[in-house]
Amino acid sequence: MxxxxxxxxxxxxxxxxFLFPLNTNATGQETPSGIPISDIExxxxxxxxxxxxxxxxxxxxxxxxxxxxxxxxxxxxxDIDQNVEMNPDETIMEWGSVSKLLVWVxxxxxxxxxxxxxxxxxxxYLPDGFLTKVSREEPITFLDLMHHTAGFExxxxxxxxxxxxxxxxLEEGLKVAExxxxxxPGEVVAYSxxxxxxxxxxxxxxxxxxxxxxxxxxIFEPLNMNHTVIHxxxxxxxxxxEKKAKGYVLTxxxxxxxxxxxxxxxxxxxxxxxTASDLTAFVQALxxxxxxxxxxxxxxxxxxxxxxxxxxxDETINGIAHGLWEYAGAARGLYHGGNxxxxxxxxxxxxxxxFAVVVLTNQAGEMEINYGLTELLVxxxxxxxxxxxxxxxxxxxxxxxxxxxxxxxxxxxxxxxxPFKIKPSEEDKIEVQYAGFTGTYLQTSPNTYKLVEGDLVxxxxxxxxVQMENAKVSKISTSISDYEPYPPGKSMPYILIYGILASVVxxxxxVIPIMLLIKRIRRQSKHRMSxxxxxxxxxxxSGTILIVNLLILVARMLINAARAYSEVMPQLVxxxxxxxxxxxAMLFMIVNWRKTRSTTKEKIMYMLSIIFIVxxxxxxxxxxxYR
Length: 627
Fold this sequence. Notes:
By secondary structure, this protein is an alpha+beta fold. Helices cover about 35% and strands about 20% of the residues. The protein has 16 helices and 21 strands. It has helices at about 5-20, 25, 40-50, 100-110, 140-145, 170-175, 195-205, 210-220, 275-285, 300-305, 370-380, 410-415, 490-525, 530-560, 565-590, 600-620, and strands spanning about 60-65, 70-80, 85, 95, 230, 245-250, 255-260, 275, 320, 325-330, 330-340, 345-350, 355-360, 400, 420-425, 430-435, 435-445, 450-455, 465-470, 470-475, 480-485. The strands form four sheets. It has an eight-stranded antiparallel sheet, sandwiched between helices. The chain has an eight-stranded antiparallel β-barrel with strand order 14-15-16-17-18-19-20-21. A three-stranded antiparallel sheet has the order 4-8-5. α13 (about 490-525) packs across α14 and α14 runs parallel beside α16 (about 600-620).
């Protein structure tokens, strides 16, 4: 009997359901957040179009799903003045700290070859006496470098420069910018550009070749990354400079000011320049198809180890996977972001979903596309309480400082003024305020809080783990950074008092020279100045010079913090010299005080000047404006 057309159609439909399921979940053709890949272009277009030209100059976005690039597109402009459009295949941009992934892959390669062990003490791999400011007996391991737990304070000087003139060798850059070790190794996560550059220098010591050559040979060439350069001044690939985007900072919506490119002696920490497509090729190598080897490693286990968790403050929160940050999304993610003076970037992998997002923008501090778009595509963790409210301790409260901060430089004042403030919100929630942004966290277990609502700045700190000591908070941990209580005498009330004192002193020494000048003019030089009066004039002028010098120094750093220490050192030396002169003038006044007849008003003025110069010197010492 010959089947009719209806029977044939039914059989075809039945087979298609079982052999080629209609459910996109079964084939995995959707993002971790549930957006069908067929809708991804429209979804990304709609999202990005809201920000490009308004709060972002331009961006290149690429998406990987099931080992294929399923989306690649440029938005906005690479050069606003010349109306040059973004192109993921051609536009060169600064990767910022995403560059660090090349260092961590290099370490994994050398560990795979047996040339080092990630648990090794790094000192035997360094030249004798290379690190001069290590203060702890505990060894620093390669894992400490990967986890940013080597204990180094942050150092903004000599990290990067607006022009290539200051660029030195990696070794010299490390020597010039060596920070103090302020924490025991392995105990505190304090993000460190120095740690990454130090790891790259060890790669040089082990392989006997410059790090940029190693990366070219072992990473760029195998992956055909021909539009990427790691050399800090583009040496050997100068032609790529022609394709580099202009970088911008946003001053107000739709107003973009061109900013400087970024040059680094410690370039492995953030000096790579390349296209989004090349960065995607690198990310693809970390997500090989089942049964296939990554082009970066010879063993499957090496890649598996690289992408596995290697550090966490507690099992209830995400941690670090050999230099990649873990992310609480719809599925476990791994990511790293980057920022320079005028570019920002973001890479996010979801290994279990064979999914990744790559974003490069030519704007400093861009968040909406780098983090907002990524969150749209990878989804969010479902936050639920693991215990009943009755079993939870009282919510935490207080102000804390990021462990990533300078502690032996006047720059620390900037970080002291940026507290991580926590206060109870509802019975089982806390409100966190940081850098002008607010997030609300739910207490899911006794010492763990998870973000339920907040600004994009909290994208990288969605989980908090609280460590207690003697019934007080000793440390708050996120996957990317730890926060600690203010040191004694450095909390916000103290800083407010210091600020008031500084304002009064500054106003006094800006006004007193004018008053003395007017007084002198009125007397028309008929009266001979006493020794105390002469000393007072020198003292007042010294205070004025110190205040003006400090104002200029602060203004210079606010305009551009990417400076060599040699650029600000003359001003710090000037502070010391002028303070010495002020001290001599004050001593001169005290010695001649009883030998001179002075009016009551003059004595009050002399006393005020002495008191205020002492207060100024104390404040400058507290906030380290002498070094």
